[in-house]
Specification:
- The protein is an alpha+beta fold.
- It has 2 domains: 185 residues, D-Maltodextrin-Binding Protein, domain 2, CATH 3.40.190.10; 196 residues, Periplasmic binding protein-like II (D-Maltodextrin-Binding Protein, domain 2, 3-Layer(aba) Sandwich).
- The chain is built from 18 helices and 13 strands.
- The strands form 3 sheets. Strands 7, 8, 9, 10, 12 and 13 form a 6-stranded mixed sheet that branches.
- The chain is globular and about 70 Å long.
Length: 440
C-alpha cells in the first residue's frame, strides 16, 4: 500500500481524507456557466436510447465488482448504454476537470466526498437536489455524517455510494502467543494499552506508529475526534487541530514509540505488513484491507471497530459519491438516464460491499445479507461515529499541511505541540487564501 499505488487508493483522499485537486481549469472566482437544472429523476427511463460515459478510479479489486454491476444494469436497461472508463485516481482527478472545461467530459462519475466541494465551486459538477427529492432520499436513508458531507453552500452535489472507515485489524496468532484472547480485541483505551504492554513483555511491538498519511494521519484524526476535538471549525474559517485535544491525540501516537510499543521510523505500509507477518498485533487501517488480508495464506485475523481511546467513539472515513458533470450542451435524456443509473447502483450496493465497502444506504446496511459479511459489518457498525472534513472548497490544501505535522512528530523531529502549532499557522493562511479564491 505504498504511495505510488495511488491507483485505487488509497487516495481514498489525500490529507486526512481530503484529496487536493490538481490540474483543474479555472478557479471559483470567474463567472459561472449557466446550465438549466435537470428535471426530477425517475426510477425508470422511457426516453430514446442513450449512451453514458461513466468515469471512476476503481483500478483495484473493486473495479471488477463495479464492472459487473454496470453490465447488469445495461442488461436490465436496454435503452441506456453505460460505458465505464477507469483511471488511476491521481490521473482521474487531473483529467476530469480538464475534460469538462474543454467540453469533452464524461456524463457522470465517482468522487471522494472531500473533493466534491472544490469541484462544485469550479462548476465541474452539477447540483443533484432533484435526485434526492424525486427518489425521496433523506438523511434517514443514509447516516447524518455521510449525507451532509455532499452538501456545498446549501445545495447537494453528490449522492453517497459507500463509506470506507478505519477499523482495528488484529493478528489472532500473535495475540494468542502473548496470552491474550484472540476473539476479544480491546475496546477501550485502558484495554488497548494493557494489551500493548502484555505484547511488549512477550517481545512484540503491538502497534506500529506510521508517520505517513496512510494511515497515520487517519489515526490521528480518529484520536482527535475521540478526544472531543476537530480538525477545522465547521465553516473551515480557522484550524482547530492544534488545540488541546489535538495535542493529546498526537502525543498518544508518539508515546507508542516512547513506551516501546512501536519501532521508530516505520516505513510506508510497513505497519500493515507487520500485521501480516506476525511482527505486530494491531493495525488501524481501512476497510479496503479486508480483501487483501483474505488473500494472505495462513493468516488468522479479525477486525473490529476502533478502540475508544478518548471520551467518545470516532473514526476516520472516506466516501465514494456519485456526481454528474457539467456539459456544454446539456442533454435532458442523458441527465435523466444518469440519475436512473445512480439510483439503480445505490439499490444494488450489497454487491459493492463484497468488494470491501460499507454501503451508504441504510436499507442495505441493515439487511441480513450485509450483516452476514461479518468483517464489513463490524467496521460498518461505526457508521454514525464517522467524521468528514468540512464541505469547503480547497480543504485538501489545508489538510495536507496537517499530514506534514503528523509526519514530523511521529518521526520525533518535533514535539506534538510544536508540530501542530506550526502547522496551524500555515493552515490558517491557506484557509484565508481559499476563501478569497473560491468565495466565502
Amino acid at each position: 500500500m505504498s504511495l505510488d499505488n495511488l491507483s485505487r487508493r488509497r487516495v481514498l483522499g489525500l490529507g486526512l481524507g481530503a484529496l487536493a485537486l490538481t490540474g483543474c481549469g479555472g478557479g471559483g472566482g470567474g463567472p459561472r456557466q449557466a446550465q438549466a437544472p435537470a428535471s426530477a429523476a425517475p426510477t425508470a427511463y422511457d426516453g430514446p436510447a442513450v449512451s453514458l460515459s461513466f468515469w471512476n478510479g476503481f483500478t483495484g479489486g473493486d473495479g471488477p465488482v463495479m464492472k459487473r454491476l454496470v453490465e447488469q444494469f445495461n442488461t436490465e436497461n436496454p435503452t441506456i448504454k453505460v460505458a465505464m472508463n477507469v483511471y488511476e485516481w491521481a490521473d482521474y482527478y487531473a483529467k476530469v476537470p480538464a475534460a469538462v472545461t474543454a467540453g469533452q467530459g464524461p456524463d457522470l462519475g465517482i468522487m471522494h466526498v472531500d473533493s466534491v466541494a472544490t469541484n462544485a465551486a469550479r462548476t465541474i459538477v452539477l447540483p443533484l437536489d432533484d435526485v434526492a427529492t424525486a427518489l425521496s432520499l433523506t438523511e434517514a436513508d443514509f447516516s447524518p455524517p455521510v449525507w451532509r458531507a455532499g452538501v456545498y453552500k446549501g445545495a447537494r452535489y453528490s449522492i453517497p455510494l459507500d463509506v470506507h472507515p478505519l477499523g482495528l485489524f488484529y493478528n489472532k496468532k500473535v495475540l494468542s502467543k502473548a496470552g491474550l484472547d484472540p476473539d476479544k480485541p480491546p475496546t477501550t483505551g485502558e484495554e488497548y494499552l494493557t494489551a500493548l504492554e502484555t505484547l511488549k513483555k512477550a517481545g512484540v511491538q503491538g502497534h506500529w506508529a506510521t508517520p505517513f498519511q496512510f494511515t497515520g494521519s487517519m489515526q490521528f484524526g480518529s484520536l482527535l475526534y475521540q478526544h472531543g476535538g476537530q480538525l477545522f471549525a465547521d465553516d473551515a474559517s480557522v484550524s482547530r487541530f492544534a488545540e488541546e485535544p489535538g495535542v493529546q491525540a498526537l502525543t498518544w501516537l508518539v508515546d507508542l514509540i516512547a513506551k516501546g510499543y512501536s519501532p521508530k521510523n516505520v516505513g510506508q505500509d510497513a505497519d500493515f505488513l507487520a500485521l501480516q507477518n506476525g511482527k505486530a498485533a494491531f493495525n488501524w487501517n481501512g476497510i479496503w484491507s479486508i480483501n487483501t488480508l483474505r488473500e494472505v495464506e495462513g493468516l488468522e485475523w479479525g477486525v473490529a471497530p476502533l478502540p475508544q481511546i478518548g471520551a467518545k467513539r470516532a473514526a476516520w472515513a472516506g466516501s465514494h459519491q456519485f456526481v454528474v458533470f457539467r456539459q456544454r450542451r446539456p442533454d435532458q435524456n442523458k441527465l435523466t438516464a444518469a440519475k436512473v443509473f445512480i439510483n439503480w447502483i445505490s439499490n444494488h450496493s450489497l454487491e459493492w460491499a463484497k468488494g470491501g465497502q460499507v454501503p451508504a444506504r441504510r436499507s442495505i446496511r441493515d439487511g441480513a445479507e450485509f450483516q452476514a459479511l461479518k468483517e464489513q459489518a463490524a467496521i460498518g457498525s461505526q457508521i454514525d461515529d464517522l467524521y468528514f472534513l468540512p464541505s469547503v472548497a480547497g480543504i485538501g490544501d489545508a489538510s495536507a499541511v496537517v499530514d506534514q505535522a503528523i509526519n514530523a512528530a511521529v518521526l520525533l523531529k518535533k514535539s506534538p505541540k510544536d508540530a501542530l502549532t506550526e502547522a496551524a499557522a500555515k493552515v490558517d493562511k491557506i484557509l484565508e487564501q481559499n476563501r478569497r479564491k473560491y468565495g466565502a
